[in-house]
Amino acid sequence: MASVSYTGPTRVFANEEVRRRSPIGITLKIAKRQTVFHSGDPANRIYEIIEGILMVFKMLSDGRRQIVEIVPAGWLCGFATEGHYDGSCEALTDTIVTAYARAEMEASGPLRSRFLHQAEEQFCAMYDHAMSLGRKSSEERIATFLMRFLPARGKRNCAGPKVPKDDADLHIPLSRAEIGDYLGLTIETVSRTITALAKSGLIRVGSKHGEIYVNDVCRLCAKARTGRNE
Amino acid sequence: MASVSYTGPTRVFANEEVRRRSPIGITLKIAKRQTVFHSGDPANRIYEIIEGILMVFKMLSDGRRQIVEIVPAGWLCGFATEGHYDGSCEALTDTIVTAYARAEMEASGPLRSRFLHQAEEQFCAMYDHAMSLGRKSSEERIATFLMRFLPARGKRNCAGPKVPKDDADLHIPLSRAEIGDYLGLTIETVSRTITALAKSGLIRVGSKHGEIYVNDVCRLCAKARTGRNE
DNA sequence: CGCGCCCTTGACCAGACTCAATATTAGTGG
DNA sequence: CCACTAATATTGAGTCTGGTCAAGGGCGCG
To answer: pTM for the full model?
Structure first.
């Protein structure tokens, strides 16, 4: 059973801190590495991320894991089929979410409307992820992954490089194992590919875990092949 | 520009046959191989498949294609970000759809509610597809793919085998190239893998294109590793 | 009957995986 | 603050799954 599992505002678990109580939906704090829900749990809630990052993953019986979605601030988490969560959810960083009881969410017109829009946005991100997993090389996958942490860049409406230097300073809150499980690669391949990108001068790897400096965002973007063709 | 591209019930294109006009939404007929919309087109409509199958795909600039979604009857098609379709859509079979103008759909409470539910359903299917693409072997991917055409089986609520023979007769409306582009494999690997599954006795390949007989659905399901663990 | 498309099969190749050793970073307690 | 340990990351060597290139087969359709 998930550690975060109640359905209404009547109980509060020790590891949850209620900050604000909007008409519907309560604000919760989720600690890094804490499980939000398990695959198969009854899907009583839908979560909107206010701050931080969650991940959704699925496992095969032999232990293979696929991180199917990385959920940053502003996105939704807790989609379900037949009343049960599909995939488990865990916090990659300390995270603040608004949890909506499903029944209440579904009763609210404006909320439903906003969530439908947001679900579409995330749906398109899943399309991109499928493209990465199915057709991109390890180098392209890593480049695409890094571009995710530059939300202002690489999209249809990309602002382009800011003169004169087109660099960026990233903090990736995923371990090599998690990056691998997200991109369909092994730890070793992730490590090797990041090293190769660094040797090519595209990025530098900081000494602290998760620190990556992008020397040329546009060149990284080109390597990601995020191009919207067809 | 897509061949199907108008936004309201005022115009009808030659290749569209209006069958029924519900209060909102019109019924269209889309011929096999016909394009429904192109990636990047303004997303004026959302489609609900009544009969037949569509596919959504994305291309990279060098010609690599990923079919990101296969959309059967009952599902929705035409999700968008920032007002533009993400991915191109083409009919795999002769298809009948209801096309809703987005503005009208978004103005209708019941429709929005139904569509949000359906989008969630499809979201979970995208999770499964990501699992296939990221972590499954070619044999597991083909098995998983075939199980898609047995919607009554392999799910949480699987009815189990009907005695005494647990066989099935499938008609797959995708070419080897399309199966490959859906599963992140090449034509040759798809062909070899299907041959291997046939040699192992799990399936038989019919002489007509797309005909596949499953000798033992449960064994195929086991090979697909559709198991809902974690 | 013959052409074209799709599928199959074979031989070879390469990118990513596996197994293993080592290095680096983070965390803990003195 | 430093020493020690555990966890994570890097690197190397060898293997293997799936990709590439190429040839041949079968089916459909005019």
So the answer is: 0.89
